[in-house]
Amino acid sequence: MHKLFVKTRNVKNFIDLMNNLIDKSNEVPKMGLIYGDPGLGKSRTAVWWATQNDAVYVRAQNNMTSHGILEKVVEDLGEAPSKKSTELMKQCIAHLRLHPQIVIVDEIDYLIGHSRTIETLRDLHDLTGAPIVLIGMHESKTKLGKYRHLYDRISEIVEFKPFSKEDMDIIVEELSEIKITDEAKEIFFEKTNRFRQVIKGIALLENIAKTNGLNKIDVKQVKGLNIEK
What we know:
Layout: H1 9-23, E1 31-36, H2 42-53, E2 56-59, H3 66-76, H4 85-98, E3 103-106, H5 115-128, E4 132-136, H6 140-144, H7 148-151, E5 154-160, H8 165-175, E6 179-180, H9 182-191, H10 195-212, E7 216-217, H11 219-223
Parallel strand pairs: 1-4, 1-5, 2-3, 3-4, 6-7
Helix pairs in contact: 1-2, 3-4, 3-5
């Protein structure tokens, strides 16, 4: 399988959101929200973008406190975290004011039930002016709505949606090392609707081709393909 990052419609919308936040004036809130069902490539896209653009990427964990999230931010900024929460916030403020970076917090669903942690992210945005992007599951948009002071600062929202046929064509054409006929792709698309499923399916088809000495995949091979949901 080719080692490429495929720019699907969702990825392009993600990039647009980031550019919009960067271009906003200082008088406009610079918080963003990316949400959608699992398996659509949200985290993969966030890590790719953060790597390409020197952004801070933090993955939230279950029951993570405000201290824990600040500690992760400081670590990703390349500094040794202080032991006190107040000092951690000071470290974040000093660094981000001097060296502005976008802060991406993935798996925000883990934090939604902890009001203090959510308010800490709002404070981090207000005190540094740094754009902060939250990434969560489909319900996160609704759940975050109860935190009005934070939600009112979210000026850019993108929903990751299931792949279109055009997306699937691009993914298969760019990633698969074996030719898949148009008829076979139609059946393949019916069996897959998540990025992880697509990747697994391509890998299985490539293995079938290699094992059987095939130079292309046709309907017969795809019909027998079993991809777990």
